[in-house]
From TrEMBL:
It comes from the Bacteria. Residues 34-379 form the Aminotransferase class I/classII large domain. This is Aminotransferase. Keywords: Aminotransferase, Pyridoxal phosphate, Transferase. It comes from Pikeienuella piscinae. Its EC number is 2.6.1.-. One of its GO terms (biological process) is amino acid metabolic process. Belongs to the class-I pyridoxal-phosphate-dependent aminotransferase family. It catalyses: L-aspartate + 2-oxoglutarate = oxaloacetate + L-glutamate. CDD domains: AAT_like.
Length: 385
């Protein structure tokens, strides 16, 4: 089962996920670690969201929900997307899913016939390979280089997508924190038009931008009809366990996805959808607070590591900091494993997100200021040694 998440290597080959499983085993054995390896908030879901869920369930919304989602929530998502992008969007363009992950799977199932190729950008969010393969697709990767701020190059994309059916991108990006520039996005859009590709745009961190602005490719010319956007409440509203997300796409694709919902989840619980609608309609302050929290933590982490032997380029978005540890002469995996064993600090090796982030480690900004400052101090001292 470990290989369900650990996906990069051939069977038996190391792919960096050993660090995560070792950390979990240490916790289960009663050890105390500083866990900076997964994107799980230390903050609690806001009480007004919990109250909305409770009131909805007690009010009787506990039966089967509509497979594509409740009208109210689909409308709330559509209004938000239209306001953010200027692209005409109605409830008919929205499917509610059990989190961004189910949205990713739905988009892959919609875009690919068995045997079709989907291209993903390396480094990538760790579930992408199994999502492509689970939908019957063939996986191809294209590297985004550290020297280019992990922004994929249009000519590399063009070469990699020959004969492909879909391209999956993610911005703001996990693990690197890259926020794709307008130029990057226009290059991506041009490749998709030229190669007649579906573009799947994972925007689950769109609410967490520290620098620059998030641009949804659906807003670019000729892209609304070929773009499937993946969104989620998990990160922006601290609702990871609610499992609520969505796909935005052309009406006919959304309608066709109903058969997938019928075959799998049969809809997202109505009381969860009611809570999500309240969060979207009344949660601007909460969303802003969450964004500000990670923004402050990012600034502090970057400042704390200044002058240390690990290089850190400030991430433009999301809730992680990538450290370039190549100066230590260690691989990301060796560094992370040694840091775990000797300092009891768990970070993710870059290798667990593909090959392009080898020699890096990802630090999730998911503990409070004091614990983070102490962990980064020890990490820097460890790197010096
Ligand atoms: N996409 C990216 C890039 C992520 O980092 C994550 C979660 O960490 C997801 C999708 C899945 O999010 P959700 O909790 O909405 O399923």
């Amino acid at each position: 089962s470990e290989r369900i998440i650990g996906l990069n290597g051939a069977p038996g080959e190391s792919d960096g996920w050993g660090v995560y499983y070792r950390a979990r085993a240490m916790i289960e054995a009663g050890e105390t670690l500083t866990m900076l390896c997964i994107g799980e908030h230390d903050r609690k879901t806001a009480p007004f969201i919990l109250d909305a869920m409770d009131a909805s369930a007690r009010g009787g919304n506990t039966g089967y929900a509509l497979a594509l989602g409740q009208d109210g929530l689909r409308r709330a998502v559509a209004e938000r997307v239209e306001a953010a992008t200027g692209v005409d969007t109605t409830a008919a363009n929205v499917m509610i899913t059990t989190g961004g992950q189910a949205a990713l799977f739905a988009t892959m199932c919609a875009a690919l016939d068995p045997g079709d190729t989907a291209v993903i950008v390396d480094p990538y969010y760790a579930t992408y390979p199994s999502t492509v393969r689970g939908a019957g697709g063939v996986l191809r990767t294209v590297a985004a280089r550290p020297s280019k701020g992990f922004q994929p190059d249009a000519s590399d994309l063009s070469a990699a997508t020959e004969g492909a059916r879909a391209l999956l991108i993610n911005t703001p990006h996990n693990p690197t924190g890259a926020v794709y520039s307008r130029a990057t996005m226009e290059g991506i859009a041009a490749v998709c038009r030229e190669r007649d590709l579906w573009l799947i745009s994972d925007e689950v961190y769109s609410g967490q931008v520290h620098e620059g602005a998030h641009l949804s490719p659906r807003a670019l010319p000729g892209m609304a009809e070929r773009t499937l956007v993946v969104g989620s409440m998990s990160k922006s509203y601290v609702m990871t366990g609610f499992r609520i997300g969505w796909v935005i796409g052309p009406e006919d694709v959304i309608a066709a996805m109903m058969s997938l919902a019928n075959a799998t989840t049969y809809g997202v619980p109505g009381f969860i959808q009611d809570a999500a609608e309240i969060a979207l309609r009344q949660g601007a302050a909460e969303e802003a607070e969450v964004a500000a929290l990670y923004n402050r933590r990012r600034d502090r982490a970057v400042a704390a590591l200044e002058g240390s032997p690990v290089a850190v380029s400030p991430p433009d978005g999301a809730m992680y900091v990538m450290l370039d540890i190549r100066g230590t002469g260690m691989s990301g995996e060796a560094f992370a494993m040694a840091l775990l064993e000797r300092e009891r600090i768990a970070v993710m090796p870059g290798e667990s997100f593909g090959r392009a982030a080898a020699g890096h480690v990802r630090v999730a900004l998911t503990v409070g200021d004091e614990a983070m400052a102490a962990a980064l101090r020890r990490l820097a001292q460890f790197a010096s040694r």
